[in-house]
Each structure stands twice: as C-alpha cells, then as structure tokens.
Amino acid sequence: MLDNKFSMFSFFTNKVLDIFQSLGKSKTLSEQEKNELSEKIQDTLLLADVPMEITKTLATEIIEDVEKNTATKVTLDEKLKSAMYHKIVDLMGNEAGGATNVDWKNKKKILMVGLQGAGKTTTIPKLAKFFKEECRKTKILATSLDFVRPAAVEQLQIVCEKHNLDFFPPSYGNLEQTIEQVLEKFRTEKYEMIILDTPGRLHIDSAMMENLRQIETLFEPDMTLLTIDSMIGQESLKVAQAFCQAITVSGAILTKADSDAKGGVALSLFKSVQKPVYFVTTGEKVQDFEKFIPSRVVGRLLGSGDIASLVEKIDKVVSAEQKENSKEKLLSGNFSLQDFLEQMEMMSNFGSIQKLMSYIPGFSGIPKAELEKAELELKKFRAAILSMTQKERENPAIINPSRKKRIADGSGLNIKIIEELLNKFEESKRFAKLLGRGSMKDMFR
Ligand code: GDP
Ligand code: MG
After folding, report:
1. I need a surface site. Which of 39, 220, 312, 361 has the fewest CB within 10 A?
2. Quick one: which of 407, 313, 393 has its CA closest to 345?
3. Coil, strand, or helix at residue 224?
4. Is 255 in the pocket of ligand 1 (CB under 6 A)?
5. How far is the CA of 104 from the centre of ligand 1 (A)?
C-alpha cells in the first residue's frame, strides 16, 4: 500500500510500476530491451530529481545485477525489483543513511539549522515529541535565536504553548551573552534536553554561515540538524553541501514530503554529503513526522509497503538455486579455479576460517595452529588465483612452467605455492567426482 502522505514519492512509484509491468513475467533481456530498460530507469531517476551523475551509474549497475542474476525460478520484473531495491538502499547509505543506530538518548543539546522557510520552527515540537516517546525525556526546553525573521521567536513560543513544550524567551543582544543565558537556564533547571532554533536566510550567504559558526562554537551542540525543504528539488543538494562545509552537520530532516516534490533529495542526499537523513515530515501537524529508514523508504518508492520481505523472498529463491547449481557443479568434479575462488570469497564473508569452524560443532577441537596454517594457505591460493587470467582460471591445464613463474611474480608468492595449489585443485576434483558418484552424495543434501 502506498502511503498517500508521501506524495513526494508517488511520481517515482508510478513510473517504476510501469517499468515492472512492461517487463512482465519474461525471463531474459534482449540487447534492445536492455538499452530501453536502462533508459527508462535513468529517465525515471532524472525526472525524480536525482542528479545526472548518479542516474547513469545506478541504471548500469541495476541492469548488471539483473543480468548477473541467472536464477530461472524468478521472473525479470522480480529480478529488477530486487536489484533496484538493493542498489537504491545502498545509494541511500543503508543503515548509515537513516535514523537507526543513533544514540538518541545521549543527545542533550540540539541545534536546528536551515534556510528560511525550510521548516525548522514547525519541526521543533515534532522532534520534542519524538524524544519524549523514544527516550522518555520529559523535561525539554525550546528556544530561538532567530532575530532575523520577523516574529520568528513569537512563532516558536506559540507552537511551544500549543504543544505543552517549555519555551525560554532569550534577550536580543550580544550573541555570547544570549547563549550563556540560554545554557544557564538549561543547566540550573536541570532540563534533559534543549532544542535551539536559529535564523535562516532565503539563500545561502556568508553572514548566515558566520553567525551559525559562532552559535556552534558557543552552544556546543550534541547534534546539529539540517532542515531541508524537499520542494526545492536538486537545489537542496547545493544547500546541504554549503551547510556541511561551514559547520558540523549531524544529519538532515527532510520537510514537506507531502508536497508535489519529486523525492530525489531523499535518494541522493547521503551520496552527496555523506550525512544521514534522520527524519521526514509530511505535514504541519505534530504527528506528521517519522524516522527515516532507507529500506522502508525504498519499499514505498517501489510501490510495495513490504518490499523488504518480498525482496528477501526473491533473494532466497535465487540463492537456493545458485547453491543447487554450485553443488551440482562441485559434485560433478566439473569446477574451475574461478569457482574455487568464488567459494573462497563466499567463505570470507564469514570472517576467518577459525571463526567459521567455531560455529560448527565437532570442529572446535582442531588445533589452532592447524587452522592458522590452513587459513594462510587459502590466502595465498586466493592471491595466486587472482594473478591468473580468466582462461587460466577456467582451464588450469594450460598453465605451463613459464606461466607459473609469471603468476608467482604477479602474486609475490613462491612458485612452490602455485604448484601446490594446482595439485590440490586436481586432487579435490578427483575427490569431488568420487563423492558425486558414491553414496556420500547424500551427505550434501
Ligand atoms: P523555518 O523558517 O525554517 O522556521 O520554517 P517554518 O517552520 O516557519 O516553516 C515554513 C512553512 O512550511 C510553514 O508555513 C510551515 O507550516 C510549512 N511546513 C513545515 N513543515 C511542513 C511539512 O512537512 N509539510 C507542509 N506541507 N508544510 C510544512
Ligand atoms: Mg523559523
């Protein structure tokens, strides 16, 4: 179900659903279809306000993933769904690009920054509500240094009164004294946290940045939140860059996701400034606010609220099929050094062999020295295979003595190791064939 509050993403979603539909349940892509698909993905991303530099690479990588996915039990649209999901979540920084893994409890001094009209003041009671609920903070103080926009301090006072949030009216004057006064109030009345509103300007200007730098130095925030109006489209990336260069921004809040903005900011902000988006606001009411979590956002983007579990299902089918294939290959003794390398890479996902063995009951008794030796050997084998050409990996029989020497030089290894690798490889092929034929095959089921 598409959440209609996020109208910002509906544009993208509609386009993507069209693409999925056009692919239908077919299994392979012709060269022409591939090009058309790449173009469609790029156009969709561009129209959604994702910068050109990103769209091209992203589309290429997505198509590559679809092509690499040789599973026969999933359809093309499912492969595309899975590839888009993973690539866009990665683009958005995965967990690092959102609000998970943040120690909210320890944030006591929050600084709000952003252009005028971005939504800083409106977001303060929303944030306070979040901290009240998420961290059980009850004593929160809000105050404002926005003496630039007419009646900005009064605006904050009014929203605070409306939402039962303590407000402190600062006195206009010397910045140092004003901030000291604010901090004094915060300390002596033992507030659990303080949210400080600051002045913005209509455009980036050096006076605003200088003012923010001073505020940052004097206030010493635990967290500086950059409020970004998603309606300003691609321009927002420049704004974000300017703020990030001038001060230490912790992360962003994207406002007005209920507008007809295109959503590209949400996709590309992390890539552009390497800062997470923590929250997104979808209206003026205090409840129109939520944590930003890339995987969930991409779910919405791709037109399915629960795409994460859908993609998980698709990926399971794919990996089961791949496993089946590599098992068949292994047991036929018909595998290459490339397969050997891939198995090793897969294993390295588990960390060291020693760690891997520690998970398997019965293997914990193997002496550490033996395991270390095996691990070292595998590392050397890996380096040796990486120094071989694709042809050599597929058919090691072509490796003659002079090639052996070249591989040894290329990998910085002794030629003996190369020979050992080739011997072991032949041996394991013979062993696998034996296994494949005999009743031991069942052991792999
Ligand atoms: P500031 O100058 O950064 O403090 O911006 P304000 O908090 O005063 O907000 C500027 C305008 O944007 C106000 O009219 C807000 O009501 C509006 N606004 C803020 N957040 C949202 C949002 O998530 N959705 C919509 N539709 N309007 C918003
Ligand atoms: Mg304001």
Report:
1. 361
2. 393
3. strand
4. yes
5. 24
Supply the residue whose CA is at minimum distance from atom 6 of ligand 1: 119
Q: Please report the pLDDT score of residue 427 as a whole number.
A: 79
256 Cβ closer than 6 Å to some ligand 1 atom: yes
- Distance between CA atoms of residues 220 and 238, nearest Å: 25
Q: What is the DSSP letter of 171?
A: P
Residues with Cβ < 8 Å from 264, sequence gap 6 or more? 45, 48, 49, 50, 51, 233, 234
Identity of the amino acid at 136: R
Q: Please state, as a whole number, how many other Cβ atoms lie within 10 Å of the Cβ of residue 350.
A: 11
Pocket of ligand 1 contains residue 78 by CB under 6 Å: no
CA 231 to ligand 2 centroid distance, Å: 17
Q: Based on the number of CB atoms within 10 Å of its own CB, is 33 exposed (0-12), middle (13-18) or buried (19 or more)? A: middle
Candidate from 255, 282, 289 with most ligand 1 atoms within 8 A of CB, to mutate: 255
Instruction: Please report where in the chains the tokens 């698709």 appear, as a residue.
Output: 314
Amino acid present at 429: K
Give 10-residue mean pLDDT values along the chain (445 residues): 61 83 81 91 88 92 91 87 92 95 96 97 97 95 94 96 96 93 97 97 93 98 97 92 97 92 88 96 93 88 67 76 70 75 65 59 65 81 89 89 92 90 81 55 38
Classified as helix, coil or strand, 288 is coil
In the reported structure, the alpha carbon of residue 284 is separated from the centroid of ligand 2 by a whole-number distance in angstroms of: 13
- Rounded-to-integer distance, Cα 286 and Cα 259, Å: 17
Q: Cα of 252 to ligand 1 centre, how many Å? A: 15
| Phi, psi for 259 (deg, rounded to 5) | -85, -170
pTM: 0.73
Location of structure tokens 């600062």: 170
How open is the CA angle 20-6-232, to the nearest 5 degrees? 105
